[in-house]
Inverse folding.
């Protein structure tokens, strides 16, 4: 958003300097990106008079001029056709840089005659494209006056960055209001006197009841206008902010838009056929825009149409066929309000950005239509002449109801939310200056948001307004040590789990990856997603069309990209959200990882192996143990496996029959082939949200239960059916005596053809080591034997096993 200092002062009564205004803008959140002072560029140039002009002796088209400057007379060779005695223009002395040509002047001979400077054209000073002759100023312009002041281009231009929520700051009057609230002056009241209409408008306006984006439409008919160039002062301001002057009628609409954030449009009324309608576009309807491009429309786009065809795309661009030209005599003025989201959607669909769309999609004042119509009407009559009809309108005021814009600001809320202790009277003063209607109550302040502040949605927004106007620098600094003394930062269980999972997986030699929450639909379908409800309405890329149903597809794709670049052995993990559906409950927090390539380096003494299901299971169990899950109570099953895992090399970790804590295993070869990734790839997914909540017993750690007695181990080999998982034997042995048995682990499995020959068909042998830790006394042989008998009995009862001879 650009504006000039003088334009701002049309609405802000202030004695503040340019630097003070810039500082204030930055302080209230309207960040200044650039300040351009034209007088600096033209500092070397000044007003001079030609006091004598003679023909060049050696050139027909050149003249030798004696020029009176502030520093005396100089001789200048000039080729301008309008150079003559008595002309007052702009002089460039030797040593100056000519911005329009890039030349640096120096004293030189031109066809044998010395020239000490030059008289400048508008193009050479980048004032305009005119270079037919040198600049001519009024004869009474003082000699030596700075060129910028004499040319009326000494008005600094300020450019500010606008955040999407501050559509009101896209008008200079809105910026002036903020600065006045800051205390940099007084906002000049906006007195809008209605223009008396003469007769009814021959063109009526209609809003169709078809769900289009138009909520209110005001129109006015003008007859007998003369559309030529706009006044010099208006052209100068528009050019300063980057708008090209076109004609008086068009320039007036742009001037009102820049001043009050109110886009307008003017139609050549003689080119319209019947009344004006706001409606949805018809399928396949086309429009030739003012930019010379033809647009194909559909019913999702709102158009402004006459009785026969579309004459403009609502809130975005007008049509060329009904645009105003120098021959325009009768004009119809459009002042309308359109729904921001609908305008944004239409603009994106057409890939069309205009100043009008930029403002409508950020929100214009829905209550300012009558005032804008009157302001534009008066400018048209003053500049173009003619007569105006009475105003015609359709629709109702689009401002939200008063109760929807009323919020209560509690007395202490500014202090508790922002840390700024501000008197209630000062809070009231700031909000009132910003246009809020304020009523003081026992609870605090009841504030009604002004119609132009569509971003105000609650009490926190009122706090933000007060703090930004008062100044963020007013918030007292508090040392971190004091903050910790006041209150230690508190993390939720989920936040702790995320941090611990990341640290644990990094410690296990994996590299953390941060991937998009989106992925291609073909990848989403491979991992249980791809439903319509998880499809993005406006994806940043066609390849990122769906929300991810799992962390694994992006990690697998990353592993594939690494392999394609010569790094096949990769171990990646990510902790983040996945999406099962489009509800808040469908978002789950997961820690997942993939291991691809070889698990061991190439070595003469080691056999190389790839990552397998047991590596993935070890990762999953390590994460669960770090997060405090009861690992000893976990059950492993192979039923209900997701389709992206290898059916014979994967498993599910559960706590009880229903609570699934993790999936692990090798990924299905068909999935890897579809993603063009070479396997095998071992993967795991730990579902952090499924972890049981911890019972808090204070912050102190439990006492260390260490025994000073020597532990002992006993080995058992059991013969069981091949279908019995070893985990079932381990759990049964551990449950035989949880006080004395410290650990149980499998150290040998004997299965296959030889096992069938020795143990019987369909049998296998599983050998376990049981670690026994006495707690109170050394165990006798009889007590150890009794414990061993309980272990054998427990395993036999749970699995049908027999002790191997």
């Amino acid at each position: 958003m650009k504006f000039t200092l003088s334009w701002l002062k049309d609405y802000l009564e202030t004695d503040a300097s340019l630097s003070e205004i810039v500082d204030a803008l930055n302080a209230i959140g309207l960040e200044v990106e650039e300040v351009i002072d034209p007088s600096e560029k033209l500092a070397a140039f000044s007003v001079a008079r030609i006091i004598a002009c003679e023909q060049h002796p050696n050139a027909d088209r050149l003249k030798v001029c004696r020029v009176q400057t502030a520093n005396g007379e100089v001789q200048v060779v000039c080729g301008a056709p309008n150079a003559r005695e008595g002309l007052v223009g702009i002089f460039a002395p030797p040593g100056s840089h000519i911005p329009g040509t890039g030349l640096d002047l120096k004293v030189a001979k031109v066809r044998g005659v010395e020239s000490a400077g030059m008289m400048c054209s508008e193009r050479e000073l980048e004032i305009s494209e005119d270079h037919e002759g040198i600049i001519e100023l009024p004869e009474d312009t003082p000699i030596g006056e700075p060129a910028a002041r004499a040319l009326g281009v000494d008005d600094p231009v300020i450019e500010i960055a606008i955040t999407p929520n501050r559509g009101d700051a896209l008008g200079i009057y809105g910026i002036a209001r903020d600065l006045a609230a800051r205390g940099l002056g007084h906002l000049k009241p906006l007195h809008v006197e209605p223009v008396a209409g003469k007769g009814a408008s021959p063109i009526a306006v209609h809003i169709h009841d078809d769900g289009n984006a138009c909520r209110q439409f005001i129109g006015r008919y003008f007859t007998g206008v003369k559309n030529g160039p706009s006044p010099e002062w208006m052209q100068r301001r528009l050019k300063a902010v980057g708008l090209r002057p076109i004609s008086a009628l068009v320039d007036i609409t742009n001037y009102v838009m820049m001043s009050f954030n109110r886009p307008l449009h003017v139609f050549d009324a003689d080119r319209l056929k019947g009344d004006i309608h706001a409606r949805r576009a018809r399928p396949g309807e086309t429009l030739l825009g003012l930019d010379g491009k033809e647009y194909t429309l559909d019913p999702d786009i709102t158009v402004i149409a006459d009785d026969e065809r579309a004459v403009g795309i609502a809130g975005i661009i007008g049509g060329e066929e009904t645009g105003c030209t120098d021959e325009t005599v009768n004009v119809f003025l459009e002042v309308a309000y359109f729904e921001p989201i609908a305008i944004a959607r239409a603009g994106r669909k057409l890939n069309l950005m205009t100043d009008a769309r930029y403002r409508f999609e950020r929100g214009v004042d829905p209550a300012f239509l009558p005032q804008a119509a009157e302001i534009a009407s008066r400018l048209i009559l003053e500049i173009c002449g003619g007569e105006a009809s009475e105003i015609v309108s359709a629709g109702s005021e689009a401002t939200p109801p008063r109760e929807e814009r009323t919020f209560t600001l509690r007395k202490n809320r500014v202090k508790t939310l922002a840390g700024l202790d501000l008197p209630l009277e000062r809070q009231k003063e700031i909000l009132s200056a910003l246009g809020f209607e304020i009523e003081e109550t026992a609870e605090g302040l009841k504030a009604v948001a002004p119609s132009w502040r569509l971003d105000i949605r609650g009490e926190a927004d009122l706090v933000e307004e007060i703090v930004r106007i008062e100044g963020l620098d007013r918030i007292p600094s508090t040392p971190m040590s004091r903050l910790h003394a006041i209150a230690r930062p508190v993390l939720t269980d989920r936040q702790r789990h995320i941090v611990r999972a990341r640290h644990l997986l990094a410690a296990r030699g994996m590299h953390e990856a941060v991937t998009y929450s989106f992925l291609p639909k073909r990848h989403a379908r491979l991992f249980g997603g791809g439903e319509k409800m998880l499809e993005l309405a406006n994806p940043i890329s066609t390849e990122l069309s769906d929300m991810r149903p799992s962390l694994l597809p992006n990690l697998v794709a990353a592993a594939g990209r690494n392999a394609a670049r010569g790094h096949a052995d990769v171990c990646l993990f990510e902790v983040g959200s996945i999406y099962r559906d489009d509800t808040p409950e469908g978002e789950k927090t997961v820690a997942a990882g993939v291991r691809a390539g070889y698990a061991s380096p190439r070595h003469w003494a080691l056999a190389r192996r790839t990552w397998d299901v047991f590596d993935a299971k070890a990762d999953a169990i390590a994460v669960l143990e770090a997060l405090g899950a009861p690992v000893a109570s976990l059950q492993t099953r192979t039923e209900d496996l997701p389709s992206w895992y290898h059916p014979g090399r994967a498993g599910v970790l559960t706590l009880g029959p229903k609570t699934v804590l993790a999936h692990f295993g090798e990924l299905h070869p068909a999935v890897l082939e579809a993603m063009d990734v070479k396997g095998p790839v071992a993967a795991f997914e730990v579902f952090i949200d499924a972890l049981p909540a911890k019972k808090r017993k204070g912050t102190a750690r439990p006492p260390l239960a260490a025994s000073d007695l020597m532990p002992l181990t006993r080995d058992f080999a059991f013969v069981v059916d091949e279908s019995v998982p070893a985990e079932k034997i381990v759990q049964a042995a551990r449950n035989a005596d949880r006080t004395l048995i410290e650990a149980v682990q499998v150290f040998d499995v004997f299965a296959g053809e030889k096992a069938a020959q020795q143990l019987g068909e369909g049998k296998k042998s599983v050998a376990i080591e049981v670690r026994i830790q006495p707690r109170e006394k050394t165990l006798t042989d009889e007590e150890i034997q009794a414990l061993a008998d309980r272990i054998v009995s427990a395993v036999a009862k749970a699995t049908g096993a027999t002790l191997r001879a």
